[in-house]
Amino acid sequence: MPQPQFILDYTGNKYHESKETEKININYDKYETIIEPFGGSFGFSRYLYEKKGLTHLNYIIYDYDEDLINFYNYFKDLINNGEHLAFIDEYNNEVKKMTENCIYEKDARFLNIKKVKNFLNTYTQKNIFIMYLIKKNHFKSMTFCTPCLKKNCGFFELIKNATFIHSPFENIDDAILNDKKTFVYLDPPYIATDNSTYEIPFNINEIFKKMQHIFKTTDCLMVHQYNFLLCVAFEDKKQIQYEKRYGGTTKKKTKHVFFYNF
Questions:
Q1: Distance of CA 261 to CAs 151, 216, 221, Å?
Q2: CATH number at residue 181
Q3: 114: domain range?
Q4: In what order do the strands lie in the sheet with 182-186?
Q5: Does one domain contain both 185 and 59?
Q6: Which DSSP state fits 64?
Q7: Using an 8 Å Cβ cutoff, are 24 and 221 in contact?
Q8: Across 15-19, 39-43, 138-142, which has the greatest mean pLDDT?
Q9: Which one has a higher pLDDT value, 241 or 102?
Q10: In whole angstroms, what is the distance from residue 211 CA to residue 230 CA?
Q11: CB–CB of 54/48 below 8 Å?
Q12: Is residue 247 part of a domain?
């Protein structure tokens, strides 16, 4: 079984599928900054930093999820203070404690949300981020921070050096996105085809207007699940299709598309 590459369990597989970008001739020497406006697990930035060794670039990660950004910045402080490995151990101990107290369901993969809430009510504010992780990983079995991850210095160095900002995509300042030495990687929500995994409403019109604007002013790469209307809307952009394979028990395959303007 492959070791986890990240500390949160996220839908999709952006880190691994970023190798598909090797089919595109991207000259990263032109850029000083990489921006992921739909940050999530910032898999593209991690791929560039860890797999391609582009450690000299500035990485800016945006996301609409304020709790997520707060956690990244909290974990960044832990790394700066040399406390992140102890935090990982503490998290794993709490998961073990919750398992022993039957907060997990019988198959040991799914959290009983009602029991988690009761557990939260008796927990201190000091460790709220551990509880955030536990709630976020309710599809993950047991502990996620293996010794392999704890030894992944490149991963921690990226978090230490990256900038994490809470902002909806529509509100990101155009002046930041429109720099010629900036490369923008867009991985927008797939709400044109399936919105079942999203918990908050999106203004899809404003999202696509802003993406169109970025394509006119900045070197940009966008990935999206194949959608005929989307391909028509971005027909003036270069396109490469590939097959995305999802992990887990479903082994689902879907057609995806890269759109780019360089």
A1: 38, 8, 7
A2: 3.40.50.150
A3: 85-147
A4: 163-166, 58-63, 33-36, 182-186, 219-225, 253-260, 238-245
A5: yes
A6: S
A7: yes
A8: 39-43
A9: 241
A10: 12
A11: yes
A12: yes
